[in-house]
Amino acid sequence: MKNAVKEKLKNGEKVLGSFIGIYSPNLIELIGYSGFDFVVIDDEHGAFSHSELENIIRTAESVDVVPIVRVSYDRSSIQKALDRGAKGIQVPMVNTKQDAERAVQKAKFPPRGTRGAAYSHRAARFGKDSGKAFLDASDENILVIPHIETLEAAENFKEIMSVDGIDLAFIGTTDLSVNMGYKSEGPKHPNVQKVVNDLYRKAAEERLKIGTVAASASGAQHAFKKGADYVGIVAISTILRSFEQVVKASKIKSMEQV
What we know:
Blueprint: H1 4-10, E1 15-20, H2 25-33, E2 38-42, H3 50-62, E3 66-70, H4 77-83, E4 88-91, H5 97-107, H6 131-141, E5 143-148, H7 151-155, H8 157-161, E6 169-171, H9 173-179, H10 190-206, E7 210-214, H11 217-226, E8 230-234, H12 235-257
Parallel strand pairs: 1-2, 1-8, 2-3, 3-4, 4-5, 5-6, 6-7, 7-8
Helix pairs in contact: 2-3
């Protein structure tokens, strides 16, 4: 049970992924064939049943893209995502060290955590994997990624990242801007950017892995240059902009021909 994204991060490589919030195995295949390293299956804001979540994870594996699940607020969400084969979890609204500890506990088997043990699910190949070998491999390879998306979380950044079992911090810039009161200006507001830049600085000083979301290729490049190791682009927004560009360009061409 290897995790290519975790191995790349350990080797100092940067990884690029895509968020998806709709049930579309075909879109997952396109993401994999495009060369992305991982896909974040959005179970916080997205629309997935448990069986659809499992099918999306299965599809991701078929095209060699690492499946990460942004879990919901349901207490069993972490367990269900991992049992279905997710290679990592992104946990929203981790604001304190205690929140981070709870996330790790739910993702790791005893004695490190409290994750329930079973071998009949697809993460254990329906029983072909079991016992200490499976439990240890899962604990070692699963990525645990807390979201830093409130001012409280940003202020507690070092304490959150000091928790054993946390692999990477994810800056949720939209939630951060809303939490700080900048609903109109959004993540571009100077005060939000100041907090974001401070998080990058702290991560660099402490040699911590950090990630964020980007709206475009240029946004991803900018994030990598700032120090991000892990960047996710929102698939639906990217598709929408591409469609809009096609419509706009087609109308211009049509006007020129008149």
